[in-house]
Amino acid sequence: MNHMEQLELPNITFKFQIPFVDGQEIEILDLIERKKPVFVVACGASKGPVATRAKDLYRSGLFSLSKQVAEQFSEKQFVMSAKNGLIPFEEKVSPYNTKITDLTKNAKLKLTKTISRQIAVIAKETGTPAIIFLGGKAYADILEIACRENSLSLSLPLKGMGLFERTSYLKRILDEYCWAAVQDLIETHLAESPEVFRMRQFSDFPSTKELPENGVYFFLDPTQTPTNTCLPGQVVRIGTHAVSKGSKATLRQRLRAHYGTGDGYGNHRASVFRLHVGASIIHAEKLEELYPHWGDGNVSPKNAPSNERELEQRVSEYIGKLALFAVPIDGESKARNRRSEFERVCISAFSAYLTKHQRLDQTWLGFANPHPTIREAQLWNVNHARDKLVSSDKKVAQIMF
């Protein structure tokens, strides 16, 4: 079993609108809860060499994207095949060479009757009044007849699109879905979590005694316009702790490394966040000659150049002005646990959204960082900032919910 399928995070429902037919927006939660749609995905010409589950047989990129959308938004999914009609995703099927374009008129009529019977059974078993089809016109024409004969509505979101348009559309659906899920989780957390877990200025960290022992933290910059209006600033750093086997580090200990010392200093060699902020200050003010050993892991804090203390203090001042909140998430200490997976998805979601849709104000210090990923992602994160939001397992949303 894929490790992501074992994760157990709080179940959070959300409403997210997504365009399905002719630019009209259908509320996906309503569609799923009220109509219980069944997704049908057109098969692909490229197939694996051996018998396997229908959802794993076809190898094209377009099929892979369509499969992921179907699995994200429904509980029942089928492949539409020129040879077998409608095949449940989990049903084993052998490779074949039959193409819809090779069928004679009589063969197409026979396939239409087969699919109509299958649709009738599916509708009876699932109670769905709606079918959503991801595929081309040749299959859609047959499916339209079958749905009409069974009084089912049929949505064709890819109608009239070329291959590139279909690919872009499906990627956007998956990206926006993941982004909406992350945003909704944050809103839900802020609305429902106890006061001790709510937003606070990081300079107040030492006096904040009530923090979850384990969780994922978010730093926000109040000088930047947020992507989510429920937040007092834009999320600029996401992180967690105890992601190695046997680690005893708590959330407080991780944040303490970012905060530094009580006298306003700190150690950037123990905090990659501090390292990035200091590097931005150095690069923005052309201080490379003054701080040649900044970030040098071979230099111990005890032997660090004395002038680094001034820069450490400036880093503490900058970080102290940021806002902080944490999402409590327990779990075993290991490389891939619930916290690390949630952190990964959140970083990927924020990075993907900011890269495509929003530009932070040019005053944001991160734009001066020498690392291109920080500048492009608009986050004080490098790891996971370029990860793909959509994985190959059943539901990316499982990681978050």
Q: Could you walk me through the main structural features you see in this protein, from its secondary elements to its overall organization?
A:
It is elongated, with a radius of gyration of 26 Å. The protein has 12 helices and 13 strands. It has 2 domains: about 35-160, Rossmann fold; about 175-400, no CATH class. A hairpin with a 2-residue loop joins strand 1 and strand 2 (about 25). The chain is of the alpha/beta class and about 400 residues long. The chain has helices at about 30-35, 55, 60-75, 105-125, 135-150, 165-190, 250-260, 270-285, 310-320, 340-355, 370-375, 395-400; strands spanning about 15-20, 25, 40, 50-55, 75-80, 85-90, 90-95, 130-135, 155, 200, 215-220, 235-240, 325-330. It is about 40% helix and about 15% strand. Mean pLDDT is about 80; it is low at about 1-35 and about 390-400. The strands form 4 sheets. The chain has a 5-stranded mixed β-sheet, with helices on both faces.
